[in-house]
Design a protein that fits this description.
The chain is α+β, with helices and mostly antiparallel strands. It is built from five helices and six strands, in the order E-E-E-E-E-H-H-E-H-H-H. The N and C termini lie far apart (59 Å).
Length: 157
Amino acid sequence: MFCPYCRYPDSRVVDSRTTDDGLAIRRRRQCPDCGRRFSTTETASLNVIKRSGVVVPFSRDKIVAGVRKACQGRPVTDSDLAILAQRVEEIVRSSGAAQIEANDIGLAILQPLRELDEVAYLRFASVYQAFATLEDFEAAIALLRVEHEGREHEQIG
């Protein structure tokens, strides 16, 4: 790590801490040549392999933009979307892979979106999973109903 002040090619780590979201490490460093201190932030890179084969950096903003369309007209705030994007990133990073298929990100979005807003979930799933018939919607709604009934029985018992 080059010193940003004197360009000395090495530095000593004085302190290391994880950031609030736990996805990066903040290191306090000191240059052995000039003695000045500086901070660095280290993150593991995560790339997305798109359907076309193009590899792009992972972006929470793209998740928010994609899910925002499904949430249009629903009682979902920008804060809710930011939290959802963070959850999706945590799910994706937990795989430990440096590259992930775009399809896998879509799958990672489904459960947190279902918990956030079921109508938005159905909208997103209908596009993402390419619902082609009315029966596809009916099957997805039937699954949601079964879950609701299961939760109601848990609350009663």
